[in-house]
Input
Amino acid sequence: MKYFGGLIFLAVMTYLGWPYYHVYQLNEAVAGNDKAALKELVDFGEVNDVYKKDLEWKAKNTVGAPGNSLLPEAMREKAQEAAAFLGNLTADTVEIDASDMFERFHKMEGSVWKNLTFAFFESPTRFTIRLGKLGRNPVHIQMTLQDWYWRVTAVYL
Output
């Protein structure tokens, strides 16, 4: 029984440390400008889908909510239409690729490890990372367990 308990403990500790190892791999890929390693760590199709949906949501919801006394009703509706059009235009033209990821990570002062301020499980198959301090435009990265491998599936800027 003691042996079985030790095995369970080892399995749980391995599972809890596993995504941190993938964060380390991400750090090494960025530090070495290794596009091949970054492509293995990031699911760019999923990242782009989430990024486009986020842009579209921001375009629809950031211009003035109903009941906002700062904008007259007619102006608010026109502003929302313009923002939605620009958001859809931006969502159709923006693609995040390995070069863009490298550019964003290299703009940070220091390495990915140095900027890591939060990293923990959101659920058993989702791991959230925050690079940078809150209130200072941090980058949030979401990793998902895909086929027994942690991959970046969302980047929130």
Remarks:
- The domain at 17-156 is CATH 3.10.450 (Nuclear Transport Factor 2; Chain: A,).
- The chain has a mean pLDDT of 81.
- The first strand starts at residue 116 and ends at 123.
